[in-house]
Amino acid sequence: MNFLRTIRVHRQPDDTRKGIIVAENRTILCALGRSGPSVFKREGDGATPANRYLYPISGFFRADRVQRPKSALAFEALTPDDGWCDAPADANYNMPVKLPFGASHEVMTRQDKLYDIGIILDWNMPVAGRKRFGGSAIFFHLCKPGYTPTEGCIAVEEADMRWLLQYMTTDTRIFVHR
């Protein structure tokens, strides 16, 4: 198989917080945001951005827990001082930061496995014109058991993530259907 051009994410009919990824001839279960897909994404709403293409920028992984994924995407190993700013009023909003950091942020080296492997998606990033309160830290990462909802990200099992990453590039489009 060649690289994936498009990955489609459909919400499950019985639970909009869960989805089905269609990539070529494969279907993969996933978790979506606690508010399901939305075309009106805002900071803290728990929605997964929908009805627009999301592109992978780069990836991250926990080198102390997992091996670097095989992928054409650039991957960096997380360190304990890696964070992600989610404070809309801060100049670093929706960007990686080094800890300690004074404004609201996520710690990237989480205790759970969710960020053991992840992809940064281009949602509300500076290149496309970042908007305050437009939503931050929209990642494609590993899921919790039972595909429990995320804060707006897309999440899959590690084996599914590793399979997808083999075929993803920065040109792969991810489309979440509303």
Description of the structure:
- It contains 1 helix and 15 strands; from the N terminus they run E-E-E-E-E-E-E-E-E-E-E-E-E-E-H-E.
- The protein has one helix at residues 158-165; strands at residues 6-12, 15-23, 26-31, 37-38, 48-49, 53-54, 56-61, 75-77, 82-85, 96-98, 105-107, 117-121, 139-142, 154-156, 173-176.
- The chain is globular.
- The protein has a 5-stranded mixed beta sheet, with no helix packed on it. A 5-stranded mixed beta sheet has the order 8-7-12-13-14.
- Strand 1 and strand 2 (15-23) form a beta hairpin.
- 4% of the residues lie in helices and 35% in strands.
- The model has no long low-confidence stretch (mean pLDDT 96).
Structure characteristics:
single chain, 178 residues, mainly beta, five-stranded mixed β-sheet, 1 helix, 15 strands
List the helices and strands and how they pair.
Elements: E1 6-12, E2 15-23, E3 26-31, E4 37-38, E5 48-49, E6 53-54, E7 56-61, E8 75-77, E9 82-85, E10 96-98, E11 105-107, E12 117-121, E13 139-142, E14 154-156, H1 158-165, E15 173-176
Parallel strand pairs: 1-15, 4-5, 7-8, 13-14
Antiparallel strand pairs: 1-2, 2-3, 6-15, 7-12, 9-10, 9-11, 12-13
